[in-house]
Amino acid sequence: MSPLVATLWLVNVTLDTGGQLAFKAAAGDPRAGDGLARWRYMASRPWLWLGLLAYALHLLTWIAFLSLVELSQGMLLASINIVAIMLGGRVLFREALTPLRIAGILLVSTGVAIVGASG
Amino acid sequence: MNARTWRFYLCGFALLLVFDTIVQVSFKLTGAHAFPPQASGAWVSRIIGQPWIYVALIGYVGNFFTWMSLLKHAPIGPAFAASHLDVVSVMLASAWLFHDALTPMRLLGAGVIMMGITCLAFAESRTHGGQDKLAQAHGPLGAPADD
């Protein structure tokens, strides 16, 4: 993996994870209320907008990444996003890491490492 | 679960995979047509100036509505696993369309990743609030997509 591809991959994972966590922060705010008021509240706070910005940037870095690697390899490497989001959820929202989740995280990470190491 | 419900799920998840695959193939074609990638307005112009990006966005919309229909009733664990089968469907599509090499290491990596996703699917089935997690973890772009 060239330095440019590795950088794009890391930026891509960061933006996807950051976007997802920002959406979670927006949607999970208990003060948001219901219905239209909920959307108004979310729009008045930064999280929803940060999530959308991260997504827009992620779209561009994903296209740039895919133009430098084979699609099959890119998809496999992007599976690490699942792991990053789960770990982010653990750190920021104290979501449980059960033994089965840890096993899943280790397996996905190992699979991504195999694909990454094989070029 | 009766035969009709099974048929609904099978068709729904097959449709989801088709949309996912179309989206990712279109992103790949977008990148190829806008090559080389640059941190510049010229590159973004090349992206929005050719049709594949719009095919990808239409695929996203189809994907989103299919996903939301399925999530209404589908059991969370199997739904999580099935939604990530796109890794396999996109890999096969790119071998066919772009002649990507399915090397033994790549196939091994894909197999281990799918085993991990199966573990996570079982974990979601057993955890309350799995639906939130599922929605978060789905696809490379978060919305029924990478992702």
Automatic annotation (TrEMBL), chain B:
GO terms for cellular component: plasma membrane. Keywords: Cell membrane, Membrane, Transmembrane, Transmembrane helix. It is found in: Cell membrane. Its main location: membrane. The chain crosses the membrane at residues 52-71, 78-99, 105-123. It is a multi-pass membrane protein. GO terms for molecular function: transmembrane transporter activity. PANTHER family: 4-AMINO-4-DEOXY-L-ARABINOSE-PHOSPHOUNDECAPRENOL FLIPPASE SUBUNIT ARNF-RELATED (PTHR30561:SF9), SMR FAMILY PROTON-DEPENDENT DRUG EFFLUX TRANSPORTER SUGE (PTHR30561). This is EamA family transporter. It comes from Dyella monticola. The lineage of its organism: Bacteria, Pseudomonadati, Pseudomonadota, Gammaproteobacteria, Lysobacterales.
